[in-house]
Amino acid sequence: MATTDQEVNELIKREYEHGFVTDIESDTFEPGLNEDVIARLSGIKKEPEWMLEWRLKAYRRWLEMDEPDWAHVGYPKIDYNSISYYSAPKRKEDMPQSLDEVDPELLKTYEKLGIPLHEREKLAGVAVDAVFDSVSVATTFKEPLAKAGVIFCSISEAIRDYPELVQKYLGTVVPHGDNFFAGLNSAVFSDGTFVYVPKGVRCPMELSTYFRINAANTGQFERTLIIADEGSYVSYLEGCTAPMRDENQLHAAVVELVALDDAQIKYSTVQNWYPGDEEGKGGIFNFVTKRGAAIGKNSKISWTQVETGSAVTWKYPSCILRGENSVGEFYSVALTNNYQQADTGTKMIHLGKNTSSTIISKGISAGKSSNAYRGLVKFGPGAEGARNFTQCDSLLIGDRCGAHTFPYIESKNKSAIVEHEATTSKVSDEQMFLCRQRGIDPEQAVSMIVNGFCKEVFKELPMEFAVEAGKLLEVSLEGSVG
Amino acid sequence: MKPAPTLSTAFLYPAGQSLPEPLLALRKQRGTALVDMPLPTRKTENWKYSSKYLKLTDDMAISLPAEGKTGSSLAVPGYKVAFLNGVMMPEACEYPDLDGISIQSFSDLSDEEASDLADRLDSTLDNKAVQMARLNSARFEDGLLIRLKPDAVLDQPLFIVHEVTAEASGSAFPRIFVDAGRHSQITLVEEYISSGSAQVMVNTVTEFNVAEGANITSIRLNMEGENVQHIGSTGVLQQRSSRFESHTVGFGGPLRRHDLQVRLEGEGAECKLNGVVVTQGKQHYDNHTTIEHVAAHCNSEETYRNIAADQSHAVFNGRIHIHQDAQKSNADMNNKNLLLSNGAEIDTKPELEIYADDVKCAHGATIGQLDEISLFYLVSRGIGRREANVLLTMAFINELVEQIPVEAVRETVQGRLNHFFEQTFQEA
Hints:
The complex is a heterodimer.
Chain A: H1 5-21, H2 35-44, H3 49-63, H4 104-113, H5 117-123, H6 130-148, E1 151-154, H7 155-161, H8 163-169, H9 180-188, E2 191-197, H10 208-213, E3 222-228, E4 233-239, E5 250-251, E6 254-259, E7 264-271, E8 285-294, E9 300-307, E10 312-315, E11 318-321, E12 327-336, E13 341-344, E14 347-350, E15 356-366, E16 370-379, E17 387-397, E18 402-411, E19 417-426, H11 429-437, H12 442-458, H13 463-476
Parallel strand pairs in A: 2-3, 3-6, 4-7, 5-8, 6-8, 7-9, 8-10, 8-11, 9-12, 10-13, 11-14, 12-15, 13-16, 14-16, 15-17, 16-18, 17-19
Antiparallel strand pairs in A: 1-2
Helix pairs in contact in A: 2-3, 3-9, 7-8, 11-12, 12-13
Chain B: H1 21-32, E1 79-84, E2 87-88, E3 101-105, H2 111-120, H3 133-139, E4 144-148, E5 158-166, E6 170-172, E7 175-180, E8 185-196, E9 200-210, E10 215-222, E11 228-238, E12 243-251, E13 255-264, E14 270-279, E15 284-293, E16 299-308, E17 313-322, E18 330-339, E19 345-354, E20 360-368, H4 372-380, H5 385-401, H6 407-424
Parallel strand pairs in B: 1-5, 4-7, 5-8, 6-9, 7-9, 8-10, 9-11, 10-12, 11-13, 12-14, 13-15, 14-16, 15-17, 16-18, 17-19, 18-20
Antiparallel strand pairs in B: 1-2, 3-4
Helix pairs in contact in B: 1-2, 1-3, 4-5
């Protein structure tokens, strides 16, 4: 493909223009946030009265909160009144009409990741026939789900159709006063996903595939609520390996998981949002609150995440282990390159008897990036016989990056046992020599070594995604060696 | 939002005037920084777990009077310097004139010496991280300056006994500055004790300036009473190929806080930090350490053990910071904790902050209890339950106690530990 920088630049510029052309008063709010804006937002979504009340309560609380500054990241101050809090989906004629209009760099990346052609169009925001798409989705996926009794819809639909479930659980895991970004999200969340798996049901499919194709622009304030009733199982995959183009710089999502007795939720994330250019300009701020409450006996919540995108990541998927014998797991690979900053980790709050948790965190920093693991393992007085094992390893590639570990460990129960270990290393000369000697080029060698380093986490991902995740690391590390 | 509490103006109380002019000036200048000094709260990261124990009442603002006889008539197997309420007591000191080594009270310094010292006080500490040390800088009544000429070697350990007499409420601000010349050697024991029962605060600052090739061993023994809130800060600045070894042994109190900051500024410097903490009753102890690897080829090794019984609370926060140019650094940090009771609490945070790639860093932390299987093993061999508990608990810290290089200190520590075992483990 013969493309010059100029062409690429032109395309980028064009995309930018599009972003502003859609500014028609009727479907985009003026920037700014106040109670009227929230009421209008709620009105457009045809929400019931209680939902509006809930949002307003969150908003009033949010006004009293301060933006957290303890994370090991730096970014310019965000003016929350310069953001527009509602924007209708893009109209078809404003989108690129075919793949030929899309940034060739982006296409090259899809190529490398091996993404199927029809998905590429969707991911690049090409205006595909939405009717055809949704019909196919409905027939292929909705039917077996409905048969099993699984509710899987947008949170807006759920608020209208299943108000009793939403009212019962929304905000119980992440209350609106929890933190600054969760408060903001509670006030203005645009849309998101709702999943309810009834008693004893094993969800017949990974909820990933559906989501990936259906990854419509749910906006920057996404809200997800997943409820696994007694004895049920669900595996949910969020995000995708393809780089996501998005004009919203700030993302403040909230994810709540509720696992009742004997239920199991497996939540996997692959995040590859735009990280900014090589000089660190632009890029998405990803400030996410994810938390699961294992409230039932023998319940289990498992987080797996592969984080390679975003300019700034602030994210701590957590488990509150309240039920007896409940289990929490956290497997994470966080890769930063160029000027990316990540402050991510987990919280395991052990409250119930014989609860156990495992944390495996792999941080890889390259370029001039900064990558921090921040974790909390806490045993309450009632956590008899609770157990935690934590391992967080860091790998440094290049001598201008940073890798940090901030593990908090708090114990109030004498029978609880916690073990924490952390190491920091680099890709050793010996490893490189061995690979080079066998004719493997340096970039590939580093990629192999990094993949080996992350293997423990990748094996937790759904199979086809593990393969993609490996490739994703390879792409993200490009240019960091030699 | 509620405004953060600030230091009561009572603590701006003018201190005694017996110091040389340059030190008085320094103190005054530091004092202005105390106006509206925010006190640590639960939201202050490095006081997160301990701020609730800090109780400064206005009647504690005055300096305790430096009079009366020191009760610290204990014989020490070495040289001895005695301080009473932060002021040196020459009559209770025992050390000969030593070649190349000067041991002086701040009050005895000439103006020239004092001015030189004034320039260097606080230079080893990061004042932002040890905010409470600022109170000492503004309030110290006296201090000890130890200077070692190049190649000077102190042949016996120097015991510095700091006693507070808590007849009435008040505070004491002991201060030590050690200037160790090239290739000098010294072993220093700081012992903190108290008498009386009024509510008092002891706020100490100890600084070590370690020149190339010097070798320092510092032992810190904290054995004050249940009425003493102790906030100590130690700063160490290490030059090329120097070595610093620290042994901290602490028994809990209403508030016990020690900040230890080591800066490895010269290549090939190494430090070894050991710590043992034992708390019982409703006691508290908080150790915060920071090791800054600034230069390349430095080694650091850190081992801390906490034992918390009854309703006590032990905190450990270790931070290793490898700067960008500190390639080939080796850093190892290890913190193990033993919770002996359900009412007790342990909080630990071993932090790594790394900006260089060719380094070997590891840290580990555990919290656990006495191993039932080991207990069973001992009991099944005819050892009483209590004895077995004592054996295993002792085994948990013995590795560190054993390494204390001064026998007399080991004996003191063992005595206190035996007392602790007696109170904690009853015959079943």
